[in-house]
Amino acid sequence: MTRPAADLSSRNPDWWRQAVIYQVYPRSFADADGDGLGDLRGITARLGHLATLGVDALWLSPFYPSELADGGYDVADHRDVDPRLGTLEDFDAMVAEAHRLGLKVVVDLVPNHTSHQHAWFQEALAAGPGSAARERYVFRPGKGAHGELPPTDWQSVFGGSAWQRVADGEWYLHLFASQQPDLNWDSEEVREDFRTTLRFWSDRGVDGFRVDVAHGLAKDLTDPLRDLGNLGATGEDALLSVAPGSHPYWDRDAVHEIYRDWRRVFDTYSPPRTAVAEAWVPDARRALYARPDELGQAFDFGYLVTRWDAAELRRVITGSLATAHAAGASATWVLSNHDVVRHASRLVLPPGTDENAWLLSGGRAPAIDRDAGLRRARAATLLMLALPGSAYLYQGEELGLPEVADLPTEVLQDPIWEQTGHVRKGRDGCRVPLPWTPGGPSYGFGSGGAWLPQPESFAAYAVEAQSGVEGSTLELYRTALRLRRKLLEGETLTWTPQVLDGVLDFTRTPGWRCVANCSGAPVPLPPGEVLLASSPLPGTEVLPPDTVVWVA
Ligand code: GLC
Predict the structure, then answer these.
(1) Which of 3, 44, 244, 322 would you call most buried, defined as having the most Cβ atoms within 10 angstroms of its Cβ?
(2) Are 436 and 462 in contact (CB under 8 A)?
(3) Which atom of ligand 1 is nearest to the CA of 113?
(4) 3-state secondary structure of 331
């Protein structure tokens, strides 16, 4: 029997449609040289873990030269490796080893901005107002009698004005940290440079790209620039209140031309290079990025932000499958990444909890039950892995790691903390280096400590502590991925009619039914052979709360 959608062989151009892709945050994965910062040789040495886990690909967050003002998303050179993380030769060796193990490699592309240390930005500063070098960025004179006020009221996602003034009096735009000046995508030179970058990594064997802030590149730069007024500052909320495509810098229609252009580059390779958009935009708009002549996929953050509630989950799943299908894309599920509270903690925060306030309380207000969180996280993962489409895992979730909510503020590195004047704690709690061994320096992360302190509780989560241990989260992921690979067929599901409230119940293929109990009470276990359960079952009759089963 041929199973095209599930054929993950290296030459299948559709390998990505139902792939499981593991996000590596390079600084926090494994440290080979003992400087406390993860590196490429560390990743290469640990690729066996990913092969054994059974994922199809790894996606690397930025490893490019960077002063790490935003964890590497401030890129000083898009076509090189940060010397602290290795060399281009180390990169090639990593790709070769990944391919040898049957793993594809996806790299992060950060096209919305550069680091202020990028040669272009340094040149722009030196060249002064009106120069061609400034045209690659968004420089403007300020308002006010002496230009002392920012050109517009645009806000940085990380807090405060999105404009920074330079010594000669002009201002430059930075939608993120001030060390991340936004590029001007109206500039043909910028466009050409990114084509070169796409080819540079594709020629080195990279299989795909994750596109950072994909909804931000095209800006309305017609002078005079428009104020936001009461449109709201940032993010999806702002977009819900404006006519689609009319916000001055998010999700403008013109951005799609850029991706159609990139698709032409991707398609010169065999198999074509793939891409996934990081676009925090409303559902219907997100699908546009995933069209086959654009990026092909867009992260489905709707699933990520949904509570553990059957009715809400069903609405989100149905909607996402429909929009992905209409776009000719496959759905793209995600529960955790380097920007959000880990799902082993998030899913048991009471509905309506202000996550930032919870982080500021060190995870104490409200206190959450770690076991209940893990139980629910395992269930949510098993549900996700049964859905049609591809799934993105974030390093450490296969260990059941919780958010490290009690990092002392003096160790915080996320620019959000400083830029909001210590109002928002930021994303460091999900970026703490991984535990590989239950003992030893930095739990096997490296010999020289870890750039963010690991809690003692990490010992029990270590890869070595869980490997081969029946019922461990790591073994659950391994079994789930092995089974999934065997069972995958088309990209559809059939909901079972008339189920109890609080239950999700669907069949993927005749031999693969998934039932999730999101209610607070036990429900009857469906008939058939239990292939896998997210938590131990008390017998053959009952499916306990917060548990998902796959049955044949
Ligand atoms: C994306 C990244 C995030 C980064 C931001 C700016 O949202 O995921 O980590 O801070 O872009 O590049």
Answers:
(1) 44
(2) yes
(3) 12
(4) coil
pLDDT tens for each residue of 261-294:
999 999 999 999 999 999 998 888 999 999 999 9
CA of 416 to the centre of ligand 1 (A): 11
Helix (H) or strand (E) holding 192: helix 188-203
502-514 b/e (C-beta count within 10 Å ≥ 16 → b): bbbbbbbeeebbb
Which residue type sits at 533? Answer: A
Q: What share of the chain is helix, strand, coil (3-state, %, to 5)?
A: 35, 15, 50
Residue with tokens 């996700």: 384
E-assigned strand segments in 268-395: 274-277, 296-298, 332-334, 390-394
- DSSP annotation of 113 reads B
Structure tokens, 358: 């919870």
How many whole angstroms from its chain centre is CA 73? Answer: 12
Quote the CA–CA distance of 383 and 534 in Å, as a whole number. 9
Q: Is the CB of 74 under 6 A from ligand 1?
A: no
Query: In sequence order, which residues have a C-beta less than 8 Å from that of residue 447 and are 6 or more positions away?
Result: 31, 34, 441
Whole-structure pTM over 0.85, yes or no? Answer: yes
Q: What is the DSSP letter of 133?
A: G
State if residue 170 touches ligand 1 by the CB under 6 angstroms criterion: no
The encoded tokens of residue 392 equal 């993105």
How far is the centre of ligand 1, averaged over its atoms, from the C-alpha of 338 (Å)? Answer: 9
Write the pLDDT tens digit of every residue in 231-264.
665 555 667 667 888 899 999 999 999 999 999 9
Rg (CA), the chain: 23
CB atoms within 10 A of CB 85: 28
Determine if ligand 1 sits within 6 Å of the CB of residue 176: yes
Query: How many residues are given for the chain?
Result: 552
The answer to whether 519 and 500 are in contact (CB under 8 A) is: yes
Q: Could you list the beta-strand ranges (E) of 412-518.
A: 494-495, 503-509, 512-517
* Residue whose C-alpha is closest to residue 340's, from 238, 434, 235, 426: 426
User: Is the C-beta atom of 394 inside 6 A of ligand 1?
Assistant: no
Report the nearest atom of ligand 1 relative to the CA of 112: 12
Pairing of strands 20-24, 390-394: parallel
User: Are the CB atoms for 531 and 552 separated by under 8 Å?
Assistant: yes
Whether residue 438 has a cis bond before it, omega within 30° of 0: no
